[in-house]
Design a protein that fits this description.
By secondary structure, this protein is mostly helical. It contains 26 helices and three strands. The chain has two domains: about 220 residues, no CATH class; about 270 residues, no CATH class. It is globular, with a radius of gyration of 23 Å. About 45% of the residues are buried. Helix content is about 65%, strand content about 5%. Helix 1 runs antiparallel to helix 3, helix 3 runs antiparallel to helix 4 and helix 8 runs parallel beside helix 11.
Length: about 550
């Protein structure tokens, strides 16, 4: 796709600067541009050398200075808001480079910058073009990982090393699948890809050996951002200035609300038991309602159709045409970190609007007990709730609106995790409010179980990074409040050390609920569909500006 797809027809200083800022951000984050559907960035990886990021940082600070120097009177109120988005687009990566020092302390910055997925799963261009982009990506990997080896500190947080080793170990399989794709779809590119893969495989092995031999023995347990940097993170990601303590209080309140509701609906099934016994019995009853290994994907496809019909029948939101979502097994390289996920079309993609809903199947090599455990965890009530989150009216529907939006360039490229995950999580609660599954106890129990998990993520994030919590304290939170067993509770706690932004689910949901309570009747005459359509028309804005957007 030509870079003309970014053009807004400059008519003012802000219009011209807007394009310059977006171009500059994508120089550092080309994978983000590809995700949005801007395929002139295909095959590019970021320059994470010290000289490269110093040059980028200098350019970003210069653009910020120009942006802040623009006369306020030059922009309409809508464009004033776009100025905030552009500022955050620059402030976010500047925070990562200069404040949290990700490139010195987090090896995931390097192994996580490598992906061939977009080129294999979306038919946006001839296979030969996509295969060539994959080859260019592999050709760039040796320099990327060599820069990481030179730049990473001698002492990095231990959880960061552990997960980087796990992520890196999956890259050779990922490259192998890429080679199979090229051989089947663009055989004339196969030789070049194979040669590039040899260099990439060697670079990955060397990087993994470096992590294991040099960084792992010296790894530190210290991972916390600290209160000041955490507060700054909330602003640069979401435009939020609310004190962290207030956000924590809201998280605890939501947890207590969800906990009380789960205990209430669990009580009738076991009147003589304790609250904990009642909840345990109710959740255990869900685990028995699961698909067979063979039926898991077909059942998920049926549920997609059910959720779509539910959205239409209840007037939850407009479904922009054309829409189509197919269910596939999660690719093997993604199964270790994903139960289910959505691969949506980007807002700039000119190809089809089809969504790909990935569900992780049973591995036939697993012991029978583990296979059964996996199917129990993806029981039908839970799978329905996950599908609401991932497809209708969650992620896929939101991305259909994102594609259809006609907002400014800043709004088309700004991607807030808290809005995106918050909307999908809000949809789970919304479905229960509107009568999903005729108000069944099982459906609400599944929704509440996931809500408690997301509440615990927000609480654990803040406590781990601002209040000195250890991983074992966060693990106990997930065990007691989210009803997790020891191993998954520990994994959730560890995730909070390297991904403090997993607060995004509850943070975004609460922001949407607060905006709905404030404005639904006053601005939208009580119409949920009108409220949701307006909300989705903004793309994926930072949740700190939601009320301002809805009132404009």
């Amino acid at each position: 796709m030509s870079s003309k797809s970014l053009s807004t027809g400059p008519t003012s200083g802000l219009d011209t600067l807007e394009r310059s800022i977006v171009d500059h951000v994508f120089r550092l984050q080309p994978g983000y541009a590809v995700f949005l559907g801007l395929h002139e960035y295909d095959g590019k990886v970021p320059d994470f050398s010290r000289a490269g990021t110093e040059e980028w940082t200098s350019g970003a600070e210069g653009l910020l200075h120009k942006l802040r120097a623009l006369p306020p009177a030059e922009a309409t109120p809508q464009r004033q808001l776009d100025r905030t988005l552009l500022e955050l687009l620059l402030e976010g990566p500047l925070f990562d480079i200069k404040v949290s020092h990700d490139l010195e302390r987090n090896p995931m910055s390097y192994v996580g910058s490598v992906s061939l997925t977009a080129y294999m799963v979306r038919n946006y261009a001839p296979a030969m073009d996509r295969a060539a982009a994959m080859t260019r990506t592999l050709d760039a990997i040796p320099k990327l990982l060599a820069d990481g080896r030179r730049r990473l500190s001698a002492t990095v947080p231990e959880p960061f090393v552990t997960l980087s080793l796990a992520m890196g170990s999956g890259l050779p399989t990922h490259f192998e699948e890429g080679e199979s794709f090229v051989a089947a779809n663009a055989p004339s590119e196969a030789s070049a890809f194979r040669k590039a893969r040899e260099g990439a495989d060697l670079a990955v092995r060397e990087f993994m050996a470096f992590l294991d031999a040099e960084l792992k023995p010296k790894a530190t347990p210290d991972f916390a951002l600290g209160a000041e940097r955490f507060q700054r993170l909330l602003y640069v990601r979401e435009g939020i200035t609310t004190p962290t303590a207030e956000i924590l209080s809201k998280g605890w309140n939501d947890l207590h609300r969800n906990q009380a509701r789960l205990e209430k609906i669990a009580q009738p099934a076991n009147p003589s038991g304790t609250a904990a016994e009642q909840v345990s019995k109710l959740l255990s009853s869900l685990y028995l309602q699961h698909s067979s290994a063979e039926q898991l994907i077909p059942d998920a496809q049926k549920i997609v159709a059910e959720t779509r019909a539910f959205v239409e029948a209840n007037g939850i939101a407009t479904i922009p045409p054309p829409d189509s979502c197919r269910v596939e097994e999660t690719p093997s390289y993604g199964r270790a970190l994903s139960t289910a996920s959505m691969n949506p079309p980007g807002p700039f993609d000119q190809g089809d609007s089809e969504g790909i809903y990935y569900v992780t199947p049973v591995d036939p090599s697993w012991p029978k007990e583990r296979q059964e455990e996996w199917l129990r965890s993806l029981n039908l009530p839970m799978l329905r709730n996950v599908t609401i989150h991932e497809v209708y009216p969650g992620h896929y529907l939101q991305f259909l609106h994102f594609r259809a939006s006609t907002g400014s360039l800043a709004r088309k490229v700004y991607f807030s995790p808290s809005f995106t995950e918050g909307w999908a999580h809000y949809c789970e609660q919304l479905a229960i409010e509107v009568g999903w599954q005729n108000g069944s106890v099982e459906a609400e129990a599944a929704e509440l179980h996931d809500a408690l998990l997301r509440d615990c993520r927000l609480i654990a994030s803040i406590m781990l990074h601002t209040q000195g919590w250890r991983v074992d304290q966060a693990t106990q939170l997930f065990r007691e409040k989210a009803h997790f067993e020891q191993l998954p509770a520990e994994r959730e706690a560890i995730r909070g050390t390297f991904n403090p932004e997993y607060f995004c689910y509850t943070l975004g949901k609460l922001a949407i609920l607060e905006a709905r309570e404030k404005l639904l009747d006053r601005r939208f005459a009580g119409s949920l569909k009108a409220f949701h359509d307006r909300l989705l028309s903004f793309g994926a804005p930072p949740v700190g500006v939601l009320t301002t957007l809805l009132e404009s």
